[in-house]
């Protein structure tokens, strides 16, 4: 029986990286070459995994430098793009670690795009109503994946360390998200899966004459986004960040990123940014006015984004991060309830994992980030 070819890892061009992404049904937008341009304050590199001469995996690596020394944390957000169902992960991860060590990395952080558990909207709703349920983990999942359990077990055996999902850089990308499955469903079926409040609000927006359009008025989006940040007490990203994001992702693929605007009698009441890579569509950023909330612009704009995702062939509409808390006194509960109303499902990924390559430097970095956080 012939042995499997050795897996090697080396730098590839952005064009090779993008071609690999386009050959997959979907990939995280954080693993596209363009995302490296968005995160301009980081170093970046496209990596390729080879079995012989065949490119079988790819990843975007972002390099974050330690203060005052030329050593880096190598970070692969929601990646790399590998066949995570393989039995021997070390065969794929060891050459990556060796390559990154040569590049000056003292540690590696990655977020395998591997699902561990799912909970239906009905299950989450029951959990919110129950006094003795405080977190998603207190609820029996609708689905528990074998792949998630296998990847988690292998990473622990190989010396990788699971990261906390709260606070500072350790929070990284969300471990829990809310998604609406779209594959094989009609618009009517997706709408019927939403709760009564969502359906009523979508109807009300239509009745009130809310108009949803797409366009390129980034300044209008950002002005409303800053207003939202002030109202909801979070720190907004500056306009140049979004300009770079739109330009970089749009240059890579004209259908990658789109701005939406919901207006009522000429007044902007909601605005969002949607991203799509292959069959995966995301609601990335959103803003809404404090005035005219009764016309339900946020529901109208989400419904149009979902419909457009379906028309583009998306299998999943991703509303991005949620916390795992279901406690009635948690300030994030309202956001979860808004997303649960779409009738989708809460999804847990394996989360982010670290591999220390230089333990003293890794420990120093960990202490530095904890103090910052």
The tally of structural domains comes to 2
| Helix share bin | 25-40%
The first-level CATH class of the largest domain is given as Alpha Beta
The global form is: globular
Major β-sheet, in short? Answer: 9 strands, mixed
Q: pLDDT average, as an integer?
A: 94
Instruction: Report how far apart the termini are.
Output: 53 Å
Low-confidence stretches: 167-171
Structural class: alpha+beta
> Count of DSSP E strands?
16
Strand order in space, largest sheet: 7-6-15-9-14-13-12-11-10
How much of the polypeptide forms β-strand, as a percent range? 25-35%
Oligomeric state as shown: single chain
Q: Which series of helices and strands comes N to C?
A: EHHEEEHEEHEHEEHHEHHEEEHEHEEH
The CATH level-2 architecture of the largest domain is identified as 3-Layer(aba) Sandwich
Question: What is the CATH T-level topology of the largest domain?
Answer: Aminopeptidase
């Amino acid at each position: 029986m012939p042995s499997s070819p050795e897996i090697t890892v080396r730098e590839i061009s952005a064009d090779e990286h993008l071609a690999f992404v386009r050959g997959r049904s979907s990939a995280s937008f954080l693993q596209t070459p363009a995302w490296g341009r968005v995160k301009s304050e980081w170093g970046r590199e496209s990596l390729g995994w080879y079995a012989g001469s065949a490119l079988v995996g790819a990843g975007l690596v972002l390099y974050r430098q330690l203060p005052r020394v030329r050593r880096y944390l190598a970070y692969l957000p929601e990646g790399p793009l590998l066949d995570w169902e393989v039995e021997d992960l070390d065969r794929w991860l060891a050459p990556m670690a060796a390559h990154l060590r040569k590049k000056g990395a003292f540690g590696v952080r990655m977020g395998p795009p591997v699902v561990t558990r799912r909970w239906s909207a009905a299950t989450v709703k029951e959990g919110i109503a129950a006094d003795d349920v405080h977190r998603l983990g207190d609820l029996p999942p609708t689905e528990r994946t074998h792949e998630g359990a296998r990847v988690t077990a292998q990473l622990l055996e190989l010396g990788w360390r699971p990261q906390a999902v709260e606070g500072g850089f350790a929070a990284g990308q969300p471990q829990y998200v809310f998604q609406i499955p779209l594959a094989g469903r009609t618009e009517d079926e997706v709408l019927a899966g939403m709760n009564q409040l969502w359906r009523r609000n979508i109807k009300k927006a239509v009745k009130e004459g809310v108009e949803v359009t797409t366009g390129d008025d980034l300044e209008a989006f950002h002005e409303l986004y800053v207003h939202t940040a002030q109202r909801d007490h979070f720190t907004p990203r500056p306009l140049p960040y979004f300009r770079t994001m739109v330009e970089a992702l749009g240059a890579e693929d004209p259908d990658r990123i789109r701005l939406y605007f919901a207006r009522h009698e000429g007044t902007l009441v909601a605005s969002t940014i949607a991203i799509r890579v292959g069959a995966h569509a995301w609601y990335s950023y959103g803003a809404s006015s404090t005035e005219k909330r009764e016309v339900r612009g946020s529901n109208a704009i989400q419904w149009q984004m979902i419909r457009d995702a379906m028309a583009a062939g998306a299998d999943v509409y991703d509303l991005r991060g949620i916390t795992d808390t279901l406690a009635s006194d948690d300030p994030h509960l309202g956001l979860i309830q808004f997303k649960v109303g779409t009738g989708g499902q809460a999804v847990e990924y394996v989360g982010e994992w670290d591999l220390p390559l230089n333990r003293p430097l890794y420990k120093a970095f960990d202490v530095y980030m904890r103090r910052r956080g």
